[in-house]
Design goal:
Blueprint: H1 3-18, E1 24-33, E2 36-44, H2 51-68, E3 76-81, H3 91-96, E4 101-110, E5 113-123, E6 127-132, E7 137-142, E8 146-151
Parallel strand pairs: 2-3
Antiparallel strand pairs: 1-2, 4-5, 4-8, 5-6, 6-7
Helix pairs in contact: 1-2
Length: 155
Amino acid sequence: MNKKEVCQKVLTWAQEIAEPLGIEVVDVELEKEHGEWYLRIFIDKPEGINIDDCEMISRQIDPVLDNHDPIPFPYHLEVSSLGLDRPLKNDQDLARSLGKKVRISLFAPFEGKKEWIGTLRAFSKERVVIGIGEEMLETSIPRNQIAKIKLEIDF
């Protein structure tokens, strides 16, 4: 199995565990860092994730992984929340972030700018619409030009 297939299998198993608990499995990654492999499961729920949620999912997915053994090498299992600065990767992430402030980085300038900050107003398969400034002037950015979208955190 390749990395993508492993992540898809783990996502399916983790969803079966998390959904009855009211927890959404948002993403699964298998990455090598500093010579060590990490299997990361990212979870979320409307009221936010706490350490007990992460521990519960970790304890329940661990025997499933041991039983199916989809990864043929040693790895570290990590279960965590999305984090404040995680990229918005799909329509579910965007839907969850409607009305929130976002930073959009582009592959090339669009209307003279390579980075846009505004309130996420709408999205479709083709475009992402943000409101800019107090007037909420709408700008519609083609999705095929977007390199990354992240929540913009004001401190």
